[in-house]
Amino acid sequence: MSSKEILIDNPIYFQNRELSWLDFNARVVEEANDPANPILEQLTFLSIGSSNLDEFYKVRVAGLQDQQKMGVEEPDTKKMWSPKKQLQEITKKNRINVRRQYDLFDLKRKQLNEKGLYFKSVRELNESDKNKARAIFEREIKPAITPYGIDAYRPFPHLSDGVLHLFVKLKRSGEPFIAIVPVPERLSRVYAVHNNEHTYLLLIEDLIYSFLSDLFKGYDVTYSFTFRITRNADLEIQEEGAEDLLSAIEDYLEKRKNGMAVRLEIDRRESAVSVNEDVALLKKALSIKQRDIYTLNGPLDLTFLSEVIPLLKEQGITESFKPFKPSYPSELKKQSVYSLARKKDLFFHHPFDAFDPIISFVREAAEDDRTVSIKQTLYRVSDDSPLVEALKNAAKKGIQVTVLVELKARFDEANNVHWAKELEEAGAHILYGVKGLKTHSKATLVIKKETDGFRRYVHLGTGNYNEQTARLYTDMGLITSNNEITQDVFDFFNYLSGYSDQPDYHYLHVSPFDIRDAFIENIEKEIKLHTRYGNGHIIAKMNSLTDKKMLLKLYEASQAGVKIELIVRGICCLIPGIPGISENITVRSIVGRFLEHSRVYYFYHNGEENLYLSSADMMTRNMIKRVEIAFPVLEPLLKSHILSILKLYLYDNTKAWILTSDGLYKKASLSDKAVHAQNELLSISSEQEKVKENPPSSNKWLTYFSALFSR
């Protein structure tokens, strides 16, 4: 290790992974305060923030708690904090974040009041409306309720992950009793009561609370409060010795329902008395620390706001993002995706470009008698996937179909087990991934026997084969018939399905390890060329940046004078702008209508310009614990087009957050002209649709970008 590396390998120059994630979620929640976002979208961002935080506790916090319980003192590799220290810092920052989230929720409620909609408790209603609320309770809720008493004969009940429960204190003949009432998961969370003037939104827990005496005849209800627990979902899948990974995954899903409690949330709004004794009882029963108890002055689990949106639309509140129609390449209206791919590489930037050509890529192969085989990796697919249907049809027709279904895709395991069984029944050959690794690559290979012999076609992408998320996430992909790349993907699938060492690829870089090695080589080359020519430039766009080796190498490049522009949506453990360390690095995060999901890596190389798209972030798990692909864009026009997209994100001063040298994010400052990258790309897509009969060439696309940048 050089003296320069020793100098930069100091904890003060890095951010903790978990705290950086909390900063990201805070940026998501802050979208609820952006007046440029319509009210329904603001509510959606609050809902997403809660959903994100649930998963964070189930996985990341749960993992740290496990380490602490087992006495593991090994620190994180960046800040060198022990698990205990990390948990303390997480709690400190998260309490601030949650307070902000509920402040914004209160603000949204007031804004809805101005539109004639009110979140109300039953006790705030007049008698007529209370009767309507009782009718809802009697008809739609009460038949599904099962109260659980707690005494010598009725043990403390199992409390399901994420489910709302009411803790009820009762009294009879002066003697106290305790009961717990789970709120049935399959019932609506929100109910509407209408009168001539207003619409009142009632939460199910409040309806149950208001009519608790109906559930405990002969007992007096002293008080009640709502609570919710989050359970550990970071359980280890026992692959070692598993004869059938499918069965192992199904066992794992059952065990996950009973993971240890990692968080307890309490809604104190309806309880005027102290509940400390009751919380202590729950704390003991759940073996949870005080650190992980959140007492909130508002409804628990704000994901219910996604359920509110349809109700608001029924009341005429329709302010949401303007619908858009993704651009469909007009060339593909006149010829098949395969005919066009024989002539040139096809680039797609979703959701601005339609995902339909990717579906057609598989469907047309399934319907073509010349198709010999189709091979595809599936990580997360939709519940009603047209791609899976096409693969099933191909298998039934006798086409050799090989599908790697990643059963270990967290929180999609059950869905993937279902599709694996369906595909297998249709006659497809199913692979469950690689032992000890998750296969996160996005690749499809089609082999056809055409008049001039066998020909291979490939789709490679940065995002999942999921037509639903392709309208919500930004991702990039390429369809090509390039001989070397298609040979690489052919070798890649044979490596997955058979027994062999990693192949020697022409162009692909495949993790574990090879992507990191390739990127380090590219950075070292950029340093060397910059030393000679003084024009070093790296641009990288990704979801997260955590890998220590990559961080150190980027610091080294900055010290050498290389200009480094990073677009990192989520976690970033690097701190830019530190004199002598990272003063040549800038970091920005884009949070907007679409989830920024594409991964792009660009190295100037004195004009040689290497540009890669990848399924991998610069995270250690992507570099050494997953099967990932990074692939180059070879055609100069496509390379320039993608570089223009990157530059557009670098000009964004509307949705961008800038990471400062003190480790804090601040909103980008507006210049004379506001630039909103996602909106600009939507405008380009819209223009493309308007001139479908006379589509612009790639050169005209670049002319558009040049005009935009010249502003």
Automatic annotation (TrEMBL):
InterPro entries: PP_kinase, PP_kinase_C_1, PP_kinase_middle, PP_kinase_middle_dom_sf, PPK_C_dom2, PPK_N_dom, PPK_N_dom_sf. Its EC number is 2.7.4.1. An intermediate of this reaction is the autophosphorylated ppk in which a phosphate is covalently linked to a histidine residue through a N-P bond. ATP binds at residues 52, 473, 569, 597. Residues 337-501, 508-673 form the Polyphosphate kinase C-terminal domain. One of its GO terms (cellular component) is polyphosphate kinase complex. Residues 129-307 form the Polyphosphate kinase middle domain. It is an enzyme of class 2 (transferase). It comes from the Bacteria. The keyword Phosphoprotein applies. The keyword Nucleotide-binding applies. GO terms for biological process: polyphosphate biosynthetic process. Catalyzes the reversible transfer of the terminal phosphate of ATP to form a long-chain polyphosphate (polyP). Belongs to the polyphosphate kinase 1 (PPK1) family. This is Polyphosphate kinase. It comes from Alkalibacterium pelagium. The lineage of its organism: Bacteria, Bacillati, Bacillota, Bacilli, Lactobacillales.
